[in-house]
TrEMBL record:
Pathway involvement of the protein, from the record: Glycan biosynthesis; glycogen biosynthesis
Species, as recorded: Ligilactobacillus ceti DSM 22408
Protein name according to UniProt: Glucose-1-phosphate adenylyltransferase
GO molecular function, one term: glucose-1-phosphate adenylyltransferase activity
Domain spans labelled Glucose-1-phosphate adenylyltransferase/Bifunctional protein GlmU-like C-terminal hexapeptide: 304-374
Lineage: Bacteria, Bacillati, Bacillota, Bacilli, Lactobacillales
EC number: 2.7.7.27
Alphabetized CDD domains for the sequence: ADP_Glucose_PP, LbH_G1P_AT_C
Length: 396
């Protein structure tokens, strides 16, 4: 059959089309620094901003950048994350020429296949990547809040004839010791990598976003495994190996909003910034939407006794108390006389009569009883998922 004046073959069928770039989202971290909030859920599945989960940002960035196929590497407590992603319909990925695949650890005749690091997770999924036949792979973290056009990064990667491009963001010099630092020459070629240096030479912090030429990365990972050379982590092993080997490694500088929400303080701060229209995240930009899977819920209901100021309230909420500078996720109930200020209330929470919540994060499906006080004035207070504080909740 001919199309556009040329003969169409099986390779033109969407199922056989070569992917220029495949995205691999690493979403298997335990998120131990988030404490109670990740006891039964992977960090990328933690709710954010009332309507989203953290991983929504990486997936939406891929879709908005024109990336049609995504692999999501999971490991720790994946149930909620898997259910949230599903077949990718919420992101328009449930099509013949697109898809999202959950990649979990497995065992075979050689034994356990648990992922031991970022690079090892990619190595363990070589068969999947080969089946997609990409020229490039985009490796992402599933626990950052940001908007980024990965196509712009790919174009720079091509222009530099690079084997590896690392996205970097300039951080304050006093914060640089917390990051992997990429030192570059005048052409943005990375000449040195410093892992959390005490005295950093620059402030170009790695964002954990990489574009690799797949053929070269595959060669490095397979050869290292065959020679029993440790190549488990991109920051610790792979990037230094590339630089030492003379591979063309370049930095792609990002100047927009980006937050690593891996701690209680950073998660709380990012949510509070979410309430600020001037934060730089521009969540209402129709040209770069952040998509998510949301539950079917009735409209919010705010009683005449409620007072709401400078807050976000999502579908399914019932509010009969006072809410100030806070985020109420789906299906939250705030009973009469309760006061919530500077706090994040995650989905399904019930806050009883006359309870007071200040500077806090309340986990999914938690119950805060009548007259209870949750005060995070000196340190952000956290109530875990399904945790119960106090008693006498009114069933009405």
């Amino acid at each position: 059959m001919k199309r556009g004046g040329r003969m169409v073959t099986d390779s033109d069928h969407p199922l056989f089309m070569k992917n220029e770039m495949l995205a691999m989202i690493l979403a298997g971290g335990k998120g131990t620094r988030l404490g109670k909030l990740t006891q039964n859920v992977a960090k990328p599945a933690v709710p954010f901003g009332g309507r989203y989960r953290i991983i929504d940002f990486a997936i939406s960035n891929c879709v908005n950048s024109g990336i049609k196929n995504i692999g999501v590497v999971t490991q720790y407590q994946p149930l909620i994350l898997n259910n949230h992603i599903g077949n990718g319909a919420s992101w328009g990925l449930d099509r013949l020429d697109a898809g999202i695949t959950i990649l979990q650890p497995y065992s075979n005749n050689e034994g356990s296949k648990w992922f031991e690091g970022t690079a090892h997770a990619i190595y363990q999924n070589i068969d999947y990547i080969d089946s997609m036949d990409p020229e490039y792979i985009l490796v992402l973290s599933g626990d950052h809040i940001y908007k980024m056009d990965y196509d712009e990064m790919l174009e720079q990667h091509k222009q530099n004839n690079a084997e590896l491009t690392v996205a970097v963001i300039d951080v304050p010099m006093e914060e640089a010791p917390r990051f992997g630092i990429m030192n570059t020459d005048d052409n943005d070629r990375i000449i040195e990598f410093e892992e959390k240096p005490e005295n950093p030479k620059s402030n170009h912090a790695s964002m954990g976003i990489y574009i690799f030429n797949w053929k070269r990365l595959r060669e490095v990972l397979v050869n290292s495994a065959n020679k029993d050379v440790e190549m488990l982590d991109f920051g610790k092993n792979v990037i230094p190996f590339y630089i030492k080997s003379g591979d063309r490694v370049f930095a792609h500088t990002y100047n927009g909003y980006w937050r690593d929400v891996g701690t209680i303080d950073s998660l709380w701060s990012a949510n509070m910034e979410f309430l600020d229209n001037e934060s730089g995240l521009t969540i209402r930009d129709k040209n770069w939407r952040i998509y998510s899977k949301n539950p079917v819920a009735p409209p919010q209901f705010i009683t005449e006794k409620a007072q709401v100021k400078d807050s976000m309230i999502v579908d399914g909420c019932y509010v009969s108390g006072d809410i100030e500078h806070s985020i109420l996720s789906s299906n939250v109930q705030i009973k009469e006389g309760a006061k919530v200020k500077d706090s994040i209330i995650m989905p399904g929470v019930i806050v009883g009569k006359n309870a007071k919540i200040n500077n806090a994060i309340i986990g999914e499906d938690a119950i805060i009883g009548n007259d209870a006080i949750i005060d995070g004035q000196t340190e952000i207070a956290v109530v875990g998922n399904a945790e119960v504080v106090g008693v006498d909740i009114d069933e009405g």
